[in-house]
Design a protein that fits this description.
The chain is built from 15 helices and 34 strands. By secondary structure, the protein is α+β, with helices and mostly antiparallel strands. It binds guanosine-5'-diphosphate.
């Protein structure tokens, strides 16, 4: 094997110092094979030797490539594209507090809460209140986000209420929201989506202000809502807690101004700052194509100032900013931090949550966009691109398998954190369903409930009492104890994976006849051959015989299977006149256990 390769390298390989494998972040097995001048199958075997099962399209990381390239006397070089070098705009997480040019910026707010508690009404009210305040034109069109002025300063609202959009953005790595307004209807109280919203805001580390809505309704009691919320460790300021809870009527407008002012004031409390003197950087909120205008992208400038004439890159698209409009449809020349604006000029539709940057020259913008486009194509070709957003979109479309859980924790902080994280494990096929959650020891009633609902009991830093332990033994209820959140998540993932229906995979091994005999001498060119599997014999492209593999030999020994790349002897039931050039496909239906990741 090695001597053959050696002979080849002498002829074709350049001088040692030039023998470099270029890796663009990752590289597929087949591409690596090409660059090294070796057969992909040889590479796959090499990888197997290193304990790694790889397929042709599998992407290998830099570390793996370095190892393999070394074996072949090549040097691996990371030539991944340094797009940030071509783009202006700050690194996203950079601290601006130390920046002397940083100034206070408006908070960006997402409204969440249970369905029908008044999120949309509140957003509408805020939008129209701003028209009344004398802004020219008013906010007439929906553009995904808008900015309102209050006596305490400006506030930006993302116009997609609810936590689905919030989480979808977060799944794309976009932490856009500074503050969550949790709407709770005073006539309904804390409902499931209220609790979910709290969990989502917590998981994102975003502070929350409560708007107790519908106080115009007769007989409602805002104090009762405050009481209910304390169960979630949200304690109103007037009771010595830290959460602002403001009674409002989204319908009539009572308290809405107060809410807006409270939000504006938070910019200072949270020390929200940005430097308007930098080149612009931000996030795409939404984008659409309009006749005669081309791509209209609503972007939120987070840092710096965007100007007409700038070159910008968003997702895999670039363009020169032709026009900027604010939420009143007014044309602007520039737009500073915490400002949602519509931008004309991008060459294609970016996705909500994509970051946008400005580039120094058109050439740079074009290069970055072209690189990103090829990345997207590459990811699509290897079929491994599933974004969090896609998953969210698929969620709830089918009846999902459920892993029932009863979750007990020592303190409610951990309980909430766990609840939020466990909910996020859901895929379109399987979810962890929390039948019951609570703080304190695992009791007999927890065990009874677990037995009744086929649940696994999870104790986070808490144990069953002695009666519960006995009851669990008797009823065959599983109790799992943990003290690290990630361990809980890993275990629940495993439980969930067990619910997935196994996938049926057709394994095919294709090989050609080399010698003729009663047993066909073959070399396995793809996959592997198993005795007892079904073989399909093809001659000149058409099916000749289909039958069971009755004999499988390595040299003189009978074997159960022969792996890729090896020579073997095969006899297929009913296949008598083997000829050189025949091709046998091995068809084996195999159950593969899948896991969620
Ligand atoms: P969303 O599902 O949270 O967006 O809720 P909506 O904004 O669609 O409101 C649901 C229903 O509650 C609608 O019929 C609204 O008119 C009503 N509603 C919203 N806010 C108030 C309020 O402050 N007072 C009263 N009485 N009804 C309200």
């Amino acid at each position: 094997m090695s001597s053959r390769r050696g002979a080849k390298t002498q002829l074709t390989t350049p001088a040692a110092h030039k023998r470099v494998v270029k890796v663009n972040g990752t590289i597929s097995v087949s591409e690596l094979g090409k660059q090294l001048g070796v057969k992909a199958n040889d590479l796959i075997r090499q990888l197997m030797g290193m304990g790694m099962m790889a397929t042709l399209n599998q992407q290998l990381d830099m570390d793996t490539v370095t190892l393999i390239a070394g074996e072949f006397d090549y040097e691996a070089r990371d030539v991944s594209f340094d797009e940030l070098a071509m783009l202006s705009g700050p690194a996203e997480q950079k601290l601006v507090e130390e920046d002397p040019d940083a100034v206070l910026r408006a908070p960006v707010v997402t409204i969440m809460g249970h369905v029908d508690h008044g999120k949309t009404t509140l957003l509408d009210r805020i939008r129209s209140a701003n028209v009344a305040s004398g802004e020219a034109g008013g906010i007439t069109q929906h553009m995904g986000a808008y900015r309102v002025e209050t006596s305490q300063g400006p506030v930006v609202f993302l116009d997609t209420p609810g936590h689905a959009a919030f989480t979808a953005m977060r799944a794309r790595g976009a932490s856009v929201t500074d503050l969550v307004v949790l709407v709770v209807a005073a006539d309904d109280g804390v409902m499931p989506q209220t609790a979910e919203s709290i969990a989502h805001a917590r998981a994102a580390g975003v502070p929350l202000i409560v708007a107790i809505n519908k106080i115009d309704k007769p007989g409602v009691d805002p104090e009762r809502i405050k009481q209910e919320l304390t169960k979630f460790e949200l304690v109103p300021e007037e009771w010595g807690g830290e959460t602002m809870m403001l009674p409002v009527s989204a319908l009539r407008g009572d308290g809405v101004d107060g809410l807006l002012e409270a939000l504006a004031l938070q910019a200072e409390v949270l020390e929200l700052k940005a430097n308007p003197k930098k080149d612009a950087f931000g996030r795409v909120v939404e984008a659409r194509v309009e006749k005669g205008r081309g791509t209209v992208a609503t972007v939120l400038v987070q840092e710096g100032t965007l100007s007409v004439g700038d070159y910008m890159v968003a997702g895999e698209f670039y363009g020169r900013v032709r026009a900027i409009m604010d939420s009143h449809g007014k044309r602007l020349k520039t737009s500073g931090p915490s400002t949602p604006v519509e931008v004309l000029g991008l060459g294609g539709l970016p996705t909500a949550g994509d970051a946008f940057y400005t580039a120094k020259t058109e050439k740079d913008a074009k290069k970055v966009a072209a690189h990103r486009e090829s990345e997207v194509k590459r990811a699509a070709a290897t079929g491994r691109q599933t974004s969090g957003v896609d998953l969210l979109a698929q969620m709830g479309q089918k009846e999902r398998e459920k892993q029932n859980l009863i979750l007990k924790a020592d303190v409610s902080g951990s309980l909430e954190a766990l609840k939020g994280s466990l909910e996020q494990l859901a895929t379109d096929e399987v979810e962890a369903r929390l039948v019951h959650t609570g703080v304190g020891v695992i009791s007999v009633s927890d065990i009874d409930l677990a037995a009744a609902s086929d649940s696994v009991v999870i104790g986070f830093n808490c144990d069953p009492d002695s009666k519960a332990k006995r009851a669990a033994d008797q009823a065959g209820v599983t109790i799992l104890k943990f003290s690290v959140i990630y361990d809980v998540l890993d275990t629940v993932k495993e439980l969930m994976s067990g619910l997935l229906t196994p996938e049926t995979v057709e394994v095919r091994a294709v090989f050609h006849i080399q010698k003729v005999g009663t047993v066909a001498g073959c070399i396995v060119t793809d996959g592997k051959v198993l005795r007892g599997a079904i073989g399909r014999v093809y001659r000149n492209g058409s099916l000749l015989v289909e039958g069971k593999i009755t004999t499988l030999k390595r040299f003189k020994d009978d074997v159960r299977e022969v792996a890729n790349g090896y020579e073997c002897g095969v006899a297929v039931d009913g296949y008598k006149d083997a000829q050189e050039g025949d091709r046998i496909e091995i068809v084996e239906l195999k159950l593969v256990k899948r896991t969620i990741d």
